[in-house]
């Protein structure tokens, strides 16, 4: 991989630090201390102190380098956002020409981790274009296979990065964008302000259907709902789509699912609730959170949408499952629910039919419910309105 192949590097910081950064650049922690520059930290003191102890091949502390990420949507950002208001966190896009800086190193993972190798730029770019490429472009990471550490690969720039190298400021919301735009305008800087909620683990967009029901365009596995729904077949195969991702991310869910299929407990019309006890935040965050989320444990609702994986999804069976859910969610202890557009992904069903069907049942439930739109089909705005989604479903009319 060449420098040209890298589209951007990224730096995570607090919005209060922007005036200083636009004036002095992104400085190494050591230079910030030496110059007595006031800053608002986004990393806790323990993490910063730990980085001082790690040395590069030049026998310099990591404090002597500005650290940029190849992939900002990583466990460190997740930790930062778990402990800081997302409106106060910004991500700076940095021109890739920074990689040509003399004395630069690339960390093939979290630079402070003892297992991470620090190499020169040429060696690092070659590694990133090979085995690391898929990891850096993934939506998920795990401790077990090392991807949690590797997705935090860093570019270590000696001394710091000049303000002229900043090309963009990414923010989570239009509210934050207004603040940053005002600052950029006052300083007459050629910097683009980009609202990119997905980068901050937020939905790309969402819409209200009722006071408790809404649709979401985003990544369901980062939902704040208590229970996540996985569409499955009843023969024990998690081959594609959300089921395949769940198989990789949550092996315990897959084992439970296979056991249910082998014992024939999982059948059409009767979803199964797996009350997982492990913390999702512990899986996602770089280090233990300072203030752990007591509601971080996720439950998984295994919802059969077809009998065999080769078949198309069965709308009649899905409706039976929805009816079961309405009748049993309180007794099961479900407090909030994230659910994909059942059957509309790889199952071959149409949102125009299934969206209203799902909403008719979900509107009867007295909990918060988020329906995640299918990524496999484009949905026109008129089919996302409250009027359309709460209208009569043709499947309901047939039943």
Describe the structure in your own words:
This protein has 399 residues and is of the alpha/beta class. The protein has two domains: 3-199, no CATH class; 205-398, Leucine Aminopeptidase, subunit E, domain 1 (3-Layer(aba) Sandwich). The chain contains 15 helices and 17 strands. The strands form four sheets. Strands 11-12-17-16-13-15-14 form a seven-stranded mixed beta sheet, sandwiched between helices. The chain has a four-stranded mixed beta sheet with strand order 1-4-9-10, with helices on both faces. A four-stranded antiparallel beta sheet has the order 3-7-5-6. The longest helix has 18 residues, at 315-332. The termini are far apart. Residues 393-399 have low confidence and may be disordered.
Gross morphology = elongated
In the predicted model, the low-confidence regions spanning at least 5 consecutive residues are: 393-399
Strand content: 15-25%
How are strands sequenced across the largest beta sheet? 11-12-17-16-13-15-14
Count of β-strands? 17
Give average pLDDT, whole number.
Answer: 90
User: N-to-C terminal Cα separation, in Å?
Assistant: 57 Å
Largest sheet: number of strands, sense, barrel closure: 7 strands, mixed
